[in-house]
Amino acid sequence: MGKAGRFACVFVPMALTVASLVCIILVGMGGTNKSSSTLNNLYFFKADTSNITLNSAIDIVPGTNVDNNLLHQGLQQAKSTLNLKDFYTVSLWNYCDGSKANSSSTSVETVEFCSPRQSEFWFNPVEVWGLNNTGLEQVFPKELKDGLNAYQTASKWMFIAYVVAFVATALELIVGFFAVFSRWGSFATTVVSVASALFILAASLTATLVYSTLSSSFNSYLKPYNIHGSLGQSMYVTTWLAVAFSFGAAIFWLFSVCCCSGRSGNDGKKTKRVNVERTPYTYERVASPYLGQSANANSQRASASSGSGVPLQGVGHGGKAYEPYRHENV
Predict the structure, then answer these.
(1) 16, 249 contact by CB (below 8 A)
(2) Nearest Cα to 119, choosing from 152, 160, 88?
């Protein structure tokens, strides 16, 4: 396999690396532009508050001493002062909110605001909904508060994992160019690729588990107010595609270390051809005028197979025939 074959062998993992990098970039760009419908559909979690019901008779946590009136008052204050929008979507860097226009058959959502990007971002409903001064965080059910605290901690690790995965994948793409020329380049790229695959797997797994738990908490403890949580399908398809592409690239980079040498298959043949060439000043048997045509042919074949220039003895006339040679300069 020559250089062209080596390039073809490296092209597949290189293409998979590019695909993984594009997916990671899309994950990071989700929710960063309110004018882009594509980016607005890339979110991890969505809280739908469009059908919120403020009924003071609802007991949020039956059998507990939770002050339900305080919770009702806080949500009523948020809704009356227009701090509470119809929906909220949570992405890697920020959140977006907007309104819903209901028609006879469909509901059209319009994103109206996206918060500034922030590293290690986490969605705090008490702060976002303007409930800071109501003491509402004190009357949230314990399970909901525990879920929010776990989400806050895990979101920091998730953000770091995505950043490391992006850097490692970009580095993998750069180092991958050296894999065209040698197996050592493929080995170095394989190490970087494995690191990239592990971090994007950890980030995707953390995001799936954390936001699934957050959605479950919203649906369990805020369901009496018709506040529903859901996951963004497009975002999870994108992040898990990045995982699949990254692991595929790592496998093919490893394959390029083992099976694609980049050496031409004719190198060994050329060496053998040089070895069998005749050395200068060799002798070659010529036809004898005393032998028949068939005897001369047999004698030449025997000389060629033996590879020596020693004359045959005892051929014709009782072995006394003169056997001429000719001098050949190769």
Answers:
(1) yes
(2) 160
What's the confidence (pLDDT) of residue 16? Answer: 94
Distance between CA atoms of residues 30 and 24, nearest Å = 10
* 8 Å CB contact between 185 and 7: no
Q: How far is CA 191 from CA 108, 158, 169, in A?
A: 47, 22, 11
pLDDT at 204: 96
Q: Rounded to a whole number, what is the distance in angstroms from the first to the last CA of the chain?
A: 34
| Tokens (6 digits) for 274 | 């040089």
Distant-in-sequence, close-in-space partners of 287: CB < 8 Å, separation ≥ 6: 296, 300
Which residue, chain included where needed, has tokens 């002062």? 81
**Phi and psi at residue 259, in whole multiples of 5°?**
-120, -10
Tokens standing for residue 217 = 């908490």
**Which amino acid makes up residue 16?**
L
- Identify the pLDDT of residue 136: 57
SS3 90: strand
Q: Looking at the chain, which runs of residues are DSSP E strands? A: 45-48, 87-90, 95-102, 107-114, 228-231, 282-285, 325-328
pLDDT at residue number 330: 47
**CA-based angle 287:293:299, to the nearest 5?**
55
Q: What is the pLDDT of residues 238-260, one digit of tens each?
A: 999 999 999 999 998 888 777 76
Longest CA pairwise span in the chain (Å): 134
Task: Pick out the chain residues at pLDDT < 70.
Answer: 1-8, 54-83, 103-105, 131-141, 260-330
Distance in angstroms (rounded) separating the CA atoms of residues 106 and 89: 19
Nearest Cα to Cα of residue 26 among 240, 248, 235: 235
Predicted local confidence at residue 189, as pLDDT = 86
d(Cα 19, Cα 198) in Å, to the nearest integer?
16
pLDDT for the residue 91: 94
SS3 230: strand
> pTM score, two decimals?
0.70
